[in-house]
Amino acid sequence: MSSKDLGASLGLTDAQIRKDLALFGSLGQPGRGYQVIDLLKRLRQMMGRDQSWPIVVVGIGNIGRAITSYGSFKGEGFEIVGVFDVDPKVVGTKSAGKVVRPMSELRATIAAHNVRLGVMAVPKEAAQDVADALIAAGVSGILNFAPKRVTAPHTVSIVSVDFTVSLEQLAFQVWLAGTEENAKK
Amino acid sequence: MSSKDLGASLGLTDAQIRKDLALFGSLGQPGRGYQVIDLLKRLRQMMGRDQSWPIVVVGIGNIGRAITSYGSFKGEGFEIVGVFDVDPKVVGTKSAGKVVRPMSELRATIAAHNVRLGVMAVPKEAAQDVADALIAAGVSGILNFAPKRVTAPHTVSIVSVDFTVSLEQLAFQVWLAGTEENAKK
DNA sequence: CCATGTGAATGGATTCACAGCT
DNA sequence: AGCTGTGAATCCATTCACATGG
What we know:
The structure is a homodimer. Helix content of chain A is 45%, strand content 18%. By secondary structure, chain A is an alpha/beta fold. Chain A folds into 2 domains: 3-46, no CATH class; 53-164, Rossmann fold (3-Layer(aba) Sandwich). Chain A has a 7-stranded mixed beta sheet with strand order 3-4-2-1-5-6-7. The first copy, chain A, is globular and about 60 Å long. Chain A binds chain B through residues 47-49, 53, 55, 61-63, 65-67, 69-70, 72-73, 76, 78, 116-117, 119, 140-143, 147, 155, 157-159, 161, 163-164, 166-175, 177-179, and chain B through 47-49, 53, 55, 61-63, 65-67, 69-70, 72-73, 76, 78, 116-117, 119, 140-143, 147, 155, 157-159, 161, 163-164, 166-175, 177-179. Chain A binds a DNA duplex through residues 2-4, 13-16, 18-19, 21-22, 26-34.
């Protein structure tokens, strides 16, 4: 596959692709292009995505359940090694075949599996507390689904997914398109 | 509030704030700073966020339910005017007080409420079909939760939320931090 | 004197364009 | 011929710095 092909399917220019890939070394063959299978393997390797990451999920509400039943994770190198909730009514039930465990077992699980990533799908009121618990237990990254900014030491990475923000982005794009439409006239 | 204060709470420089805001006109008072209440109102107005957007939700699985029970939408100017699903078992049940309706009623609802935004929380196999249906019914923006890239005419905006991608971003950040750590030594 | 709005300077990323490999 | 890797040129966003208004 040539850099132009790659670019086309990503919405980038061919030069862009070449510049970026060249940063990692000479990954392509002049006159031939890039061998995608091999390329993928080498990129994954160089970016630490060649081994599986154990993760824990905290908060088994609608979103938590959606995440645990999400088949694609394993294929992408993530394995859920524990699901947790504070609610005694939920603890002990199963979500996608995994038994929900009480928060008291969080720390041991994280230590046992060397978990570095935690997924947090809890109400916004609990967000900061759960984040603190995860960090105290030793994770160094949190994927946060609560509509609340959580603070953490700069040694811990946080990625937030906020549905409202996503909707706002979309609304803005649509509004912008409509505005440009009018301006053209 | 001064541009420096604003910047501090957003992780930006004061100059950045001023440059950006100045694009919309002279919103601040020299010597005094910006009046945040007023600023917010004027920005919202200028960006089409001053009126409510009706939305529909298609696919009432775990994610669909999470979205419909998400209180924050209304406060941010989005109102769910209809929830839909293909599954006859789900149609007729309630999700967060809203009756789930069959896909056959999608078009009429969108027309009746002048809906421009659709939220799609369906299995990846159904994603493209549902997107097509939404577009045919007249929406101009889709928030897609299916882990599948959907294609659409360039007149339609698409914003995708893919949990796996978010997790990958997080894993990359954590990996990067670990790598820099080692490099420093 | 404080803080904005804005030209000018800076710096980093994207694009161009081409020598060289297959 | 086809396509990479890469210096050089270009573009664009961020930062600087200051004249001007409150």
